[in-house]
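Tokens in:
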């Protein structure tokens, strides 16, 4: 059964990589319903959390959706982004404006 709070069926599916290191040293969002831990650690260089990065599948993005909403304190959506060469990635935003800003930044980055 899918958890209503964190949208996952498996309360132990995260962390996906380096579980021990993550649980011991990283700040976690702990689901109040199923107890699942979702990493909230900020990458010190870029000040970004895991949910800020693109995901390679919708399933993985869903696992981090709740941590985005807890951080932003608003409802978030997962957007499918298809690059010119056909590569698909998934990214979490809370507003369409954020998506547009990201795409603009991406385009600038590619033009360099
Ligand atoms: Zn972590
Ligand atoms: Zn849960």
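Residues out:
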């Amino acid at each position: 059964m899918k958890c209503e709070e964190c949208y996952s069926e498996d309360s132990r599916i995260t962390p996906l990589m380096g579980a021990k290191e993550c649980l011991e040293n990283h700040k976690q969002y702990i689901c109040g319903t199923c107890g699942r831990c979702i990493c909230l650690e900020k990458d010190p260089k870029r000040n970004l959390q895991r949910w800020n990065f693109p995901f390679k599948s919708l399933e993985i993005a869903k696992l981090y959706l709740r941590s985005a909403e807890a951080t932003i304190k608003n409802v978030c959506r997962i957007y499918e982004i298809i690059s010119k060469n056909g590569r698909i990635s998934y990214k979490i935003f809370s507003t369409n404006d954020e998506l547009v800003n990201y795409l603009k930044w991406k385009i600038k980055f590619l033009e360099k």
